[in-house]
Amino acid sequence: MGAGAAGLMAACRLLDAGKSVLLIERNDRVGRKLAITGKGRCNLTNDCDFRAFLENVPTNPKFLYGALGSYPPASTMSYFEERLGLPLKVERGNRVFPQSDKAHDVVNALLARLKSDEHFRMVQAKAERILTDGEGRVSGVVAGGKSYPCRQLLIATGGASYPLTGSDGSGYRLASALGHRIVEPKPSLVPVECYGHVCKALQGLSLKNTALSLYDTEKEKKVFEDFGELLFTHFGLSGPMILSSSAHMKEMKAGKYRIELDLKPALDEGQLDRRLLADFSENINRDFANSLSALLPSKMIPVIVSLSGIDPKKKVNAIKKEERAELVRLLKHFRLTVKGFRPIAEAIVTSGGVDVKEVNPKTMESKLAGGLYFAGEILDVDAYTGGFNLQIAFATASLAAKAMTQPDC
To answer: N or C, which terminus of the chain has less Cβ within 10 Å?
Structure first.
């Protein structure tokens, strides 16, 4: 059930093994969420080794040992290029994209494989209930008011992010009805809202080569750090670094987390102070507000001037050492307090889902209901941006398909 990344891959792998497949999908077309990933380019995996991959999985990484061991990123790349005929390319950060830069080509490649097989059938309907026999084993599924008998069933309905694409959390209800514990779904890889008017004043400004540190304000402890890009929005912050940092905000509540940006990470405080002195010497008769154009984006200058506490009309040759030290501190520790996450509907992935303690990591089969399998975002596993989450979907789907083809299944 579910024709997203995991469902499509599982269906392909089952057909490859000679199995008959019935794919149940509520939408009128498959892969809707897959088609919008990576800003429409589809970052479908990350070309890194096993250890590096797991370092990018903050939630239940050990559960993925079997899936990633059986189907690593290299297998995903090989399958798309050699089996599906889709040329790929590797970009910065080992991110893998189709050469065409079109996510729809990824969806179409999977769909073409399915449609080429006479043993494939798809039904557009919403799954309503899973049927079991007297021993608690899967015996069928009710979808669209009709019963479909089966001995094996894979739930790959996604999480609760992007509900308009079909990921509305319905899979949780189906799993829960069979006794599975559902870890409370929360947004992950999601923009954050911040206090104050700073972000709104900087709305639309994108920063690159910026260092980020995330602090738990209750423990005054750094819980995450990153380097890269971010975007100021009318509500707060977004962009790759922010999405990754959100995965570490495990117990979100207003004011619990603080983000500090190092706007000049290539310079230590002493070097930055000397840079300021050099800039000021070149603008010796200018007002402070007009002296930072070589150092900062124009949109950020009024904000920094205001936060520095230095009179914007003060001549730079009159700025005191103590004022300059405060300016250096501000540039190296630009602080923003997190108010909360944006709604889960805006999250790239969902944290939470089916408790992995109740799923066999070697097969993706339920420990509670025989013949029931899980793959993809419905599981309580999530990772950072960079192709890791789609690789998890493909790997868990492939492992489940492999288990479903075994003679004793």
So the answer is: C
pLDDT digits (tens, 9 = 90+) for 265-290: 999 999 999 999 999 999 888 999 99
Torsion angle of C-alpha atoms 335, 338, 343, 348, degrees rounded to 10: 50
Could you tell me the domains of the chain? Answer: 5-187+344-404 (3.50.50.60), 191-341 (1.10.8.50)
124's tokens? 């557009």
Question: What pTM, to 2 d.p., does this model score?
Answer: 0.82
Q: How many whole angstroms separate alpha carbon 243 and alpha carbon 237?
A: 9
CA-wise closest residue to 111 among 25, 225, 38, 200: 25
- Find the angle CA(103)-CA(104)-CA(110) to the nearest 5 degrees: 100
| Dihedral over Cα of 93, 95, 100, 104: its sign | negative
Report how far residue 30's alpha carbon sits from residue 33's, in angstroms, rounded to the nearest whole number. 9
Residue 14's beta-bridge partner residues? Answer: none
d(CA 409, CA 397): 16
